[in-house]
Amino acid sequence: MTLDPNTFRQFRHELHRFPEVSGQEIETQKRINAFVSQFNPVTITEVGGTGLLLQYGQGDTGPVTLIRADIDALPIQEVNAFAHKSKYEGVSHKCGHDGHAAILARLASLLAENPVSDGRVYLLFQPAEETGKGAEAVLRDPNFAAIHPDRAFALHNLPGFTVGSIVCKPGSFTSSVLSIIVTFTGKVSHSAEPEKGLNPAYVMADFMLRTKQIQHPEPQSDDFALITPIYTTMGEKSYGISAGYGEVHLTLRTRNAKRMDVLTAQLQTLLAELSTASGIDIQTSYTEAFVANENDMEAYNLIRQSAQALGYDFIEKTEPFKWGEDFGLFTQHYPGAMFGIGNGEDSPALHNDDYDFNDSLIEPAAQLFLTLVHQLHGSA
């Protein structure tokens, strides 16, 4: 079945108009299922709650390859006024996952036209990437556990890079990211007598200032460690009460998991010192963890060779991107790699309220994935 490439642009626009945030991609799953069913996969299986897994090829022997795209949107109000703008208040596709899903749908159509001769290929439409929960949910799903991929691949569009250029590197491609919630529990008192309570304000302020001294924000450094304040709260809007409780939320970014372990240990030591000196009870918890995408050298070489065979510009990046991506959890389990494709040098940045995915990437990205597949599996 040969389709006009505009069909996939229209599909991307449909996903963009009806975005759903992480874990709530119920209608998105239905839309994808209805669209890709026409490309006759061997099976379509629900995985990870609101994800889909398509199978192509039926070989009991031979390689097993996984190609993944994310499908969730963000809680961001869109400011664009184009015809396919989000119909939902406060929710929009500002990371291009609608485009990633369209690329994978196009690949499904290409695999229907160009079947693999050996092994099996699985296409994963993964939910909840933005919260770091989707990859974990898929990996824990018995429907996924049965497939045992030999290799796994994914992509992400990249604002700031020339349209269609392929960006990759061996080793860490994206950073390890971890969010930390620190609670400071003291004792409330009358604001005229703060000495009769334990106000956490100055301990919180000291902690915030000292995190700035701990970090190494230069991305080129092997010791790269970025600590970003996200949210803080303390006390109540009652001017006769000295606060007795506060919270600080931070996001931590490092080049790899080992460096993250060092950074969190530093923070825990600092917090223990502050608690001992002040009498404030300090507790920590962690959320939204993303392990670094560790690109396997052989998988990296397959991406580079495929890009060069297609005549695409190829850029080898020298340091990891600072953002996190939960595909890193797949590269902890299977040899694989993530690469980037340029969304345009003038494209608004990811998570900006005026960002939009570049539709011209759908066809070249799908062709790159197809070339990868045929390098590994051959064509019938």
From TrEMBL:
Domain Peptidase M20 dimerisation: 178-273
UniProt keyword list: Hydrolase, Manganese, Metal-binding
Organism: Spirosoma foliorum
Binding note for cofactor: The Mn(2+) ion enhances activity.
Signal sequence residues: none
Residues where Mn(2+) binds: C95, H97, E130, H156, H351
PANTHER family attached to this UniProt entry: CLAN MH, FAMILY M20, PEPTIDASE T-LIKE METALLOPEPTIDASE (PTHR11014:SF169), PEPTIDASE M20 FAMILY MEMBER (PTHR11014)
Pfam families: M20_dimer (PF07687), Peptidase_M20 (PF01546)
Required cofactor names: Mn(2+)
One function term, GO molecular function aspect: metal ion binding
UniProt-listed InterPro entries: Amidohydrolase (IPR017439), Bact_exopeptidase_dim_dom (IPR036264), Peptidase_M20 (IPR002933), Peptidase_M20_dimer (IPR011650)
Protein name (database record): Amidohydrolase
